[in-house]
Design a protein that fits this description.
Blueprint: H1 8-16, E1 20-28, E2 31-38, E3 41-48, H2 72-78, H3 89-95, E4 100-104, E5 109-111, E6 119-125, E7 127-133, E8 139-146, E9 150-151, H4 153-158, E10 165-168, E11 172-178, H5 179-188, H6 191-216, H7 219-230, E12 238-241, H8 246-252, H9 257-266, E13 272-275, E14 278-281, H10 284-292, H11 294-305
Antiparallel strand pairs: 1-2, 2-3, 4-11, 5-10, 6-9, 6-11, 7-8, 7-10, 12-14, 13-14
Length: about 300
């Protein structure tokens, strides 16, 4: 290894300038093992734990050199999220004072199930999925978050552990707010707690609606409702860009990938055509009706055809 990379400070400096890419890290007794890529070399750097703050999760190291200050655009999104609804601008400013932003590449892990919840997060851009591994070893998608969503508040406030793994589905920008800071803010201003409770209650209702959809709606209705939620108009024709791959869409809707493909084919009868990652819809209003009343909509479609 070059002499210039023998010190932790030199490594950190080159990482900040983008000259060193952190591949992954592991913690061992009294040491932090960083596996990095420098020019054409893959290097292993052993650092005593006392030299630098060690993230609670090895996977969190993948974004260490991407932490940055919030931009004006970040703050604009943060002030509008449901979590801070009703709070004064100066209160929000105080809450996000120590916050940092991270840019994650698609398929990068933000945190893993069981990691200590040392922060909560706000989505600025992109998509992340939260999943658990079930007893059979399969991935069960719990929820998918996008711009303006916040997550991990409950775990952060209780000092618990993350109940699921969070992974970037696309390139994503995420704001991290330390748990100890938000707890301190709540002690100073209980209104913050009320706003957070209201936001988390709203999310609980959304999760209950998702469970209801899985239990009461057919696969076709779930797909129709998903597409309608992405449509930029309430009625008439439009083209929808699928936000992430079809395998994840299927998991989000409680379907097998092959079942999703068959459902897309069946939706042609109501004017839905799939072209790779884009979906052309002839009438969004008809799609919305299908989501609530499948039989009547399909029956009406065939009547119109005659």
């Amino acid at each position: 290894m070059e002499a210039g990379l023998r010190s932790t400070g030199a490594l950190a400096g080159r990482a900040a300038r983008g000259q060193v890419a952190l591949i992954y890290g592991r913690t061992a007794k009294n040491f932090l093992s960083l596996h990095v890529r420098y020019r054409d070399y893959r290097l292993v750097v052993m650092i005593p734990v006392g030299v630098m703050e060690v993230p609670s999760s090895p996977c969190a190291l993948t974004a260490l050199n991407m932490a940055e200050h919030l931009t004006a655009g970040d703050l604009q999104i943060i002030t509008r999220i449901a979590l801070f609804r009703g709070l004064k601008p100066e209160t929000i400013e105080h809450i996000v004072a120590p916050a940092t932003a991270k840019t994650l590449k698609a398929h990068s892990t933000l945190f893993q199930q069981g990691d200590p919840a040392t922060a909560f997060f706000i989505m600025i851009d992109g998509w992340t999925k939260h999943y658990r591994i079930n007893l059979s070893g399969e991935e069960a998608v719990i929820h998918i978050f996008t711009k303006g969503d916040s997550f991990a508040e409950a775990a952060a406030l209780t000092g618990g552990r993350f109940p699921a793994t969070a992974e970037a589905v696309t390139d994503a920008r995420i704001v991290r707010i330390p748990a100890d800071h938000i707890v301190s803010c709540i002690r100073e201003d209980p209104n913050i707690a009320l706003a957070m409770i209201a936001s988390m209650s709203q999310r609980l209702r959304q999760l209950m609606q998702q469970v209801e959809q899985l239990k009461a709606q057919s696969g076709m209705q779930r797909v129709a409702q998903f597409l309608a939620s992405l449509a930029p108009v309430d009625h008439g024709p439009c083209v929808i860009a699928l936000p992430y791959d079809k395998v994840l869409i299927a998991a989000r809707l409680g379907l097998k990938p092959e079942s999703l493909s068959r459902t897309f084919a069946k939706l042609r009868c109501v004017g839905v055509t799939v072209h790779a990652a884009h979906v052309a819809v002839s009438d969004v209003a008809k799609l919305r009706r299908l989501a609530t009343d499948e039989k009547s909509t399909i029956r009406g479609t065939f009547s119109d055809a005659r």
